[in-house]
Amino acid sequence: SNNMNLQQFIDKHTGKLSDYDWRYWAECVDLIKFYMHDVFGMSPWAIGNANQLWHDKYGILKTFCTKIEGSKDMKEWDIIFINTSSEFDHVGIFKEKVATRARIFDQVGNGNPVGGELPAKYREYPIKSVLGVWRPNKTETPEQKRVREFADKHDIKGRSTTQPFTQFEILLILSKL
To answer: 128 CB contacts (<8 Å, ≥6 apart)?
Structure first.
């Protein structure tokens, strides 16, 4: 496959603000959408905010990841979730533990068009603020492959963050494949 490895992904995005869906400017979840797309060959549509993604509200992560609560088992490449004490929380890509902190690759967006977004780079967060990780599986599941191929064939990029695919729609898509 032509998927990137982690270092290629980090090289591509470092210092940039990446807006995957052209909505709400460049948010933390946009970088994760690019991660899913560039590294794992998925075509994620809406995945909501980081808190909704942690709870997998739209059933995206469970097709290619395993959820691991807390900070006891974190590995490079994991999609890591940080409790920010806001309703949105935060998401990035775990690199390593540094003492009592987690070093992650992330971008910070606040939906503010006059600036205030912070480009992708390594940042550190207290381990105690880690909600947990979703660990990508190295192999694509049959369901994921069908969804990806359907999305590619129909060039589906356009479902917005406010109007994601429902589980019903995903089932409908899968039923037609």
So the answer is: 71, 100
Residue 148: strand, helix, or coil: helix
Judge contact between 47 and 53, C-beta under 8 A.
yes
- DSSP-assigned states of every residue in 20-37: SSSSSSS-HHHHHHHHHH
Q: Kindly report the pTM of this predicted structure.
A: 0.75
Mean pLDDT per 10-residue run, the chain (177 residues)?
78 89 76 87 78 89 88 94 90 95 90 64 96 83 68 57 52 65
Q: Which long-range CB contacts under 8 A does 136-140 form with residues at least 24 apart?
A: 136/39, 136/40, 136/64, 136/65, 136/77, 136/78, 136/79, 137/64, 137/65, 137/66, 140/40, 140/41, 140/64
The upper half-sphere exposure of residue 107, i.e. CA atoms within 13 Å in the direction of its Cβ, equals 28
